[in-house]
Amino acid sequence: MNDRFLRACRRQSVDCTPIWLMRQAGRFLPEYRALRQRHPMMEMIKTPELAVEVTLQPIRRFELDAAIIFADILPPLEAMGVSVEFVRGEGPSIAQPIRAAADIAKLVVPSPEEIAPYTQEAVRLAARELNGRVPLIGFSGAPFTLAGYLIEGGSSADYARARRLMYDATDAWHSLMEKLSLMVGAYLQAQVRAGAQALQLFDSWVGVLSPADYREFVLPYVARTVAMARQAGVPVIYFSTGTAGMLETIATTGADVIGIDWRVDLGEAWKRVGYGVAIQGNLDPLTLLAPLPKLQDRVLHVLGQAGRRDGHIFNLGHGVLQDTPVDNVKALVDLVHRETQRS
What we know:
By secondary structure, the chain is an alpha/beta fold. It has a single domain, classed as TIM Barrel (Alpha-Beta Barrel). A 7-stranded parallel β-sheet has the order 1-4-5-6-7-8-9. The chain has a two-stranded antiparallel ribbon with strand order 2-3. The chain is globular, with a radius of gyration of 19 Å.
């Protein structure tokens, strides 16, 4: 019924700029926090009915133009033989991090049906519940970001262990990225079969790399993953952070939409990736905590950078922060729609 997000992904004309927000289904919403008090994170992810409830919470509150399935990038790794847990107050943890080629050899490439089947079921249920009200986005972590967690054992400031493995055991690195790209591509395809109408590939930590290392050690696997995802026939968004120095290379991934963070002006980024792709972004998430006049000023700046070209999807440069006022999110969504209304 509301297809402006999908139209923008394909650089088609829209009645106003579509908007959705990374982490829109999450901890800034009081109804999410109430649910989280009763259920551990992994239980919420692995119980399709709970995941669907969280997915729909922001759609009930705001006039958003897309829903994104509530899930996490790490649980799909379990299908490869990896133990994943979420430690309250610390975040995700890999019980036995990868340290050598022998560890990589043990990783299996699962069948699509084995990869986070609970999330695939949540996609089916959410698509049914949405019933065309807005499109549903499926997602996965990108190969490098997943490799970083696997090697470090959790999050890291610089992913030094992962980068050392790239240099010290290059053949092992390529073997790992090969397996991850095949798993992620199959997982994204499975989400489309379950009902997802668009896909996002999160490469949240690839910005720690130099452009040369990205080209050699990451780009071939992102391109393969994107190609597999596009075979499913839906738009594919590739999102990364801290990558303003390699936008021209990122433009060669084959993604339909390039998601950018707030560290580069959207107009400059779009010019550098080329107007043959759509662009998503790129308000600083912290701006949603600012007074409304400042928020409005920054929103108008982003919209001005887009220049009303077909193919802009408004989003943040990363996820909604936990302390974000709900009223500010509503103000943001309404402002974007109002200021970009086509007559």
